[in-house]
Amino acid sequence: MTATTDARDAETAPPPTVSPRERLRLVAVLGLLVALGPFTIDLYLPALPTITEDLGTTEAAVQLTLTGTLAGLAVGQLVIGPLSDAFGRRRPLLAGTALHVVASALCVVAPDVAVLGVLRVAQGLGAAAATVVALAVVRDLFSGLAAATMFSRLMLVLGTSPVLAPTIGGELLRWTEWRGIFIALALLGAVLMALSALALRETLPPSRRRRGGVRDTAAAYVALLRDRPYVGLVLVIGLSMASLLAYVAGSSFVLQDQFGLSEQQFGLAFAANAVAVIGATQLNVRLLRRWGPQQLLVAALAVGTGAGLVMLALAATGTGGLAGILVPLFVSLAGFGMAGPNAQALALLRHGEAAGTAAALLGAAQFGIGSLASPLVGALGNDGTAMAALVAGGMAAAALVLVTVVRPWQLAGFEASTVRLAAEGGTTGAADPGAARR
């Protein structure tokens, strides 16, 4: 048997059956892993004004430490994704979380904003392993509607992270200074590393691993970039994430400086907005029983764009005050929450033979494109209008790419195939990735 035949067999082999009990355990473990990135991003948000004052720097410089974390998450996934396809999921995951622990501990003693920025990049590189491996494990074990459902379950945890992180960060600041937040991140990384070592089995057997080093990795990325619908979905995910991260980057300054909320009130407001993401992801699970993921993706981006434009109009005219920002923002975030799992499921189903690499490119787009939003909010003034403009712009651009590049109406056959195979294949919804691409 030739190597080509082996690769084809590995590509079309159905995912292993997952019991209901193991599925619950996977949701818990993988959910905690995908939460590491958002916690790394969000836990220190209430402390941004304090860090600015303590380090004697500018708001824009401190926001660049957030950009550095996002850039680390993006670059790290591009590297770790192919490594996880070649060496399995566990080893890259454990190495990445170890890097996160070390970088977090060093942030505690950072003497200035430049050193803090470099260490935040390293934090992002480490957290990238948790994100990309979690997505790849889902694709190893699930396909079709089952994969979309699993992504929605993970998005529940992902949506809970912005609820908890700034709130916990605000409470931590009652008892410690901002450096104590990085001690908490180091401890979180250590716990997740131990949990991964003990509770997460290897999901990529040696027979399905990709070999060939740099040349094989480059070939895998080239193959992905030649798939127009996949590239379009990558851009959709990245642009919608830019919308979310514009809110993340600007919210502490808008809500605390412009509207006068305290650190604790900011955490509560952030938590209330994140309920939109949580509710939308879980509503998505129910809606998938009636509509296809591409139909829900179109509707989610339409709602998110419309609400973003309303928020921009209200912010620019000063209408409605704080409510004029928070109410349409809540609706726009709900659109993001529903769009995310559907776009991810549609993209990853097309490339099950290289799930780690495909998930890496998705993650890199999320945080790479998203990282551009952070300095833009600062450059435009760090006020409600600037934040609203980028939230609305990101969602509108994602909707435009969906219509012009992905062309979701052309995925109708793909949806029908997915639904049929999911029904026939039981809980895993196993599908032929090659057929999906055709």
Please name the defining characteristics of this protein:
Growth Hormone, Chain: A; mainly alpha; 18 helices; 438 residues
Describe the protein's architecture and organization:
The protein is mostly helical. The protein has a single domain (23-427), classed as MFS general substrate transporter like domains (Growth Hormone, Chain: A), CATH 1.20.1250. Helices cover 82% and strands 0% of the residues. It is built from 18 helices and no strands. The chain has helices at residues 3-12, 20-42, 48-54, 59-87, 90-107, 113-141, 144-175, 179-199, 213-225, 228-258, 263-287, 293-317, 321-349, 355-371, 373-379, 384-406, 412-424, 433-437. Helix 10 (228-258) packs across helix 15. The longest helix is centred in the middle third of the chain and has 32 residues, at 144-175. It is globular, with a radius of gyration of 21 Å.
